[in-house]
Each structure stands twice: as structure tokens, then as C-alpha cells.
Hints:
It is built from 8 helices and 20 strands. The protein has helices spanning 42-50, 92-102, 107-120, 136-148, 166-183, 194-200, 218-223, 228-233, and strands at 4-13, 16-26, 31-35, 57-62, 65-66, 77-80, 154-158, 186-191, 203-208, 211-216, 238-248, 251-256, 260-265, 277-282, 288-290, 300-311, 315-321, 327-333, 348-353, 359-361.
Amino acid sequence: xxxxxxxxxxxxxxxxxxxxxxxxxxxxxxxxxxxxxxxxxxxxxxxxxxxxxxxxxxxxxxxxxxxxxxxxxxxxxxxxxxxxxxxxxxxxxxxxxxxxxxxxxxxxxxxxxxxxxxxxxxxxxxxxxxxxxxxxxxxxxxxxxxxxxxxxxxxxxxxxxxxxxxxxxxxxxxxxxxxxxxxxxxxxxxxxxxxxxxxxxxxxxxxxxxxxxxxxxxxxxxxxxxxxxxxxxxxxxxxxxxxxxxxxxxxxxxxxxxxxxxxxxxxxxxxxxxxxxxxxxxxxxxxxxxxxxxxxxxxxxxxxxxxxxxxxxxxxxxxxxxxxxxxxxxxxxxxxxxxxxxxxxxxxxxxxxxxxxxxxxxx
Length: 363
Ligand SMILES: Nc1ncnc2c1ncn2[C@@H]1O[C@H](COP(=O)(O)OP(=O)(O)OP(=O)(O)O)[C@@H](O)[C@H]1O
Ligand SMILES: [Mg+2]
């Protein structure tokens, strides 16, 4: 049985359909992420799980128990928001101890449990400090320790790292995953940052305008996007207009960007028909380029003109033009020191890739 069952939950604000018939099952121990652009309904859905917003219809079950109409404080879960919401007049120790004091734990047990959590978040030397004597990252670690100290069934996190700088955020990613594994508490995590979602989650539900557009593991969502929106939202992606010229067995013959023709395999060709229009999506890192014609088998080879590049340090993102002016991008890792100057601007080079590394999308 799933730990958290969201069943056909719906929410309107006026005539704005913010959460549209959403159903999700989340298992015990998962790091589950709600991802999507600003305004897509992530916070509203999380607030319904927390009990701060009541659904118009649908049910929310926790451990098989209907909690849809339970008051927030009666739900065995905690919520962490972007702002730290620590008690300013309490020390780090007392902030973390607060839920246990409320639950009337024995003093010695409280102390042991709090110190264990503070050790996990590496804040033992700060026990006597007050929130205003801590950095943003330290404050957020106190908030996380406080929400895990009484081992809730569920921890809801709404963009908890968005106030931190990029370096600290990355450090906190590692810490969060460790904490989640150590405590075994199920996390439901909200972010609009796709990198963060890919790095942290066991599964991701990608939302758009109140709907789930795809729900799967990070690797599947990234490599097998179901729609144009998913391919475009998650990471960089080339999206070419494409048409099906022929279908044979489980192979589609495609005409891509009006000038490239190749075959690709699909799981189920019966879902498609000849003449169908869609997009061919391929990630920039799946394309390769070379000044000489490559000798590899099972790749489609074409020529394109180097338009320019962006040097990112770890990789270089090249922009190319096809003969008809259609642009696309290609990512090369800079594993060799001079990789940034590997292809001259304005030159024609060979570009090649495995057509099965891309996807044909119809919506
Ligand atoms: N209490 C409210 N009353 C009216 N409209 C609301 C209310 N709360 C949210 N909304 C609207 O509902 C939509 C979804 O809001 P929500 O906060 O769930 O988005 P979000 O996905 O969390 O976005 P962000 O990434 O910017 O935090 C938005 O259009 C927002 O303006
Ligand atoms: Mg939000």
C-alpha cells in the first residue's frame, strides 16, 4: 500500500483551475518531487497535503487513513517553506527540541534525539546559538533537523533551498539525500529547478497548468519525454518539426526539419500513422561532430555549419545551422584541454547521432 494517496484532487481559485484532477501514489521512503513552472499549482497541491488548503473534490489518504479534512496540526507530517520560520527567541537546541517538548517527551530522551539530529546536519557546535547568529544555510539545516526530530511519516518541502546560493544549494542536495536515507522519512519536495529535481528525486511528477504531464524516474523523464513541453522544460533539448513518411514494423521513417531523413525504432508503431506531424527531440549531448566523415555504424550523418559556441568550462555548447537555416545545439564535454576550439565558426562539419537516442513527439 502506498504511504500517501492523492486521489482525483481538484482545486479552483475563482475560475482559475489550479489543481486539475491530480492522482499520485507515493511510497514509504520515497524522495518524491513536484516539479513545474511558476504558477503550475505545486504549492497549492503541497498545501492540500499539509492541510492549509481544502480540496474542492478528491481525497488524500495517509497510511490508508483519510486525512482530507483533518486540521494541519493533527496530521503526522511537517512542512518546510522557503523562509526558515525558526523561533527567534529559542536557541538551536530548543528550536529542534520544540516538537518533542510539545509531545511531552522525557527530558533525557529529548536531549539524545536532538543531539543525534544536530550531528546529522553538522550543527553540534551551534547548539547554544540563536537563529540571528546563523547563516542562511545553517538556519535551513536547523529547520530540517526540527522537522525530522520526531520522525514524521511525511516531510513536505516547498523550495527549501531557493534562498541559498548555488554552491550551498549543491552542498545541501547531498545532505538532504543523506538525511532522507538515514531517517527513512518520506519526502515530498517542491521545486521549479529541473537540475535539483533530477539530482534528488526517486520519482518526479512534472506539472503544467494544474495537470500532471509526466510522472516517472528522473532518468526516464529526461530520456523519454512524452511531450514537447516535457522535453523542453527538462534540460536542453533540440526540437525539430518532423513528419512520418513511412512505418515498417516498429520503425518510423521520419523527415526532420524538412531536410533530414532517417529511421527510428519505437516501442509501439501502432500509435502512429503515415503523414503524422510532430517533433523529433534529441538532447545536445547525444549529437557528435567531427571534421572528418565518421566511420561509425548505426549513426545518421549529415553536414551542418558551425554558428558559434558557448564555453561552460565542463562542456562547450555549439550552435549549428542546417542548410535551410534551422538551428540546433550540440554539447561536447571538455575532456581535452583545447576542446573549445575544436571546430571553427562558419565551417561545415559532420554531425552524427543514433536516431534511437531521440524521440518522436506528437503533442
Ligand atoms: N489563495 C489563493 N487565492 C487565489 N489564487 C491563488 C491562491 N494561491 C495560489 N493562487 C494561484 O494559483 C496558481 C498556482 O499557485 P501555486 O502557488 O500553487 O503555484 P506554484 O506552482 O507553487 O508556483 P511557484 O513556482 O511560483 O511557487 C497561481 O496562478 C496563483 O496565483
Ligand atoms: Mg510555489
